[in-house]
Amino acid sequence: MVIGGGLAGLSLAMRLAQLGYGGRVRIIEPRQHYEDDRSWAFWTTRGSVWAASATRTWDRWRFSMTDGESLTRSAEGWCYAYVRSEEFYQAALRTIAGSPNITLLTGTRAADIEALGDDVHVSTTGHGGILTARHVVDTRSPSASQCSAATLFQSFVGHELRLSQPGFDAEQVELMTDMRCDARGFVFSYVLALSPTRALVEVTRFTPQPIGAAELAPDLESLLDARGWSHAERLRSESATLPMGLPAPAGAGTVRGVVRAGIGGGALRAASGYGFLRIQAWADSCADALVQGCPPVGHPDDPPMRCWMDRLFLRVLASHPARTPEFFLRLASSVPGPAFVRFMSDQAGWADHGRIIAALPPVPFLQALRARPRRTRLPA
Ligand SMILES: Cc1cc2nc3c(=O)[nH]c(=O)nc-3n(C[C@H](O)[C@H](O)[C@H](O)COP(=O)(O)OP(=O)(O)OC[C@H]3O[C@@H](n4cnc5c(N)ncnc54)[C@H](O)[C@@H]3O)c2cc1C
After folding, report:
1. How far apart (Å, rounded) are the C-alpha atoms in residues 234 and 178?
2. Over residues 40-57, mean pLDDT
3. How far is the CA of 6 from the centre of ligand 1 (A)?
4. Coil/strand/helix, residue 322
5. Most exposed residue of 118, 257, 348, 371, measured as fewest CB within 10 angstroms of its CB?
């Protein structure tokens, strides 16, 4: 049984269908209908299956400060890809509909989970009642207490806009532009121009406490106003607060026979909040395990060097919000494009890590090495 038919749950179901898995799979999902509720973007190699199936790809990405300092970067052989959630959901629903042994129970919410004998019992609201399975993959979002251990929160809100006249630069992504630190901390703009008249425009903040979409709305309105996009047609909106540096779920307290996956299972990369490709890699290995008759697997631990680098980087960002724009600009200007992209895509080698370290000012990092990690708390 899979709890949650979001990115992780549907990715696993698709892989199982594609591999011809013969076991019975039920996916428990509260929503009744899937909407275009998010954009998944990530770096991938030009020849990859994700580059081929992406809604849009770009070869260049831009960083800039509010004072106008600006840099455009690229990486030979790589692109920045965007997958529209609506396209992903519809492809997954079609695949599941063609697999008689995989059922998506929409309008159903999982509540208590209990191990009884060799089975796991999941009580559900909706039309499920108590459902029983040998193995459960739980992809629900992390609880507030799990999130309280995150080092920083990445909160963003955005609109997909349509202009009546061309006004977006569709040749490059605004990855981190208008970078600055104000009274609430580090903030930047993110613009994915799908065409000269259509773009996703977002404002993002890194803060020690989560910020809701309503609180970010004035920042977004200021951005739209400054760019002359206030009167554009608003096609849809999206927002999120992603925990950065969330520890993997502790073994104690988890129910036997239940594996956590997705964000609650440690899917997000600590330093960036990116999770799409990490969830795809997990879905591949979890489906392989099930097809071979083994229990489902969770997300693998990050290698020690990546863990160490990410933890240190996040601690420095948390302690130096005013210098965060400078840190990102240094990374963009001093680290060669391919090394930067490999670092962001979990493919960095020792030499890439060395380039990242060399690009950053040593004093805040040495101070962070000596300091105790900060803990933040979510409101109850
Ligand atoms: C707006 C937004 C933009 C993002 N952009 C990017 C990006 O550009 N690149 C990137 O790499 N990552 C991005 N992410 C981060 C991450 O990739 C996504 O959040 C991704 O959807 C995480 O997958 P998931 O399966 O863990 O969670 P979800 O996709 O949120 O799925 C969790 C599912 O659990 C269900 N659920 C909740 N409660 C219950 C319950 N009680 N019982 C049963 N089911 C339940 C939910 O309805 C949901 O369908 C973004 C996230 C958001 C929210």
Report:
1. 22
2. 96
3. 6
4. helix
5. 118
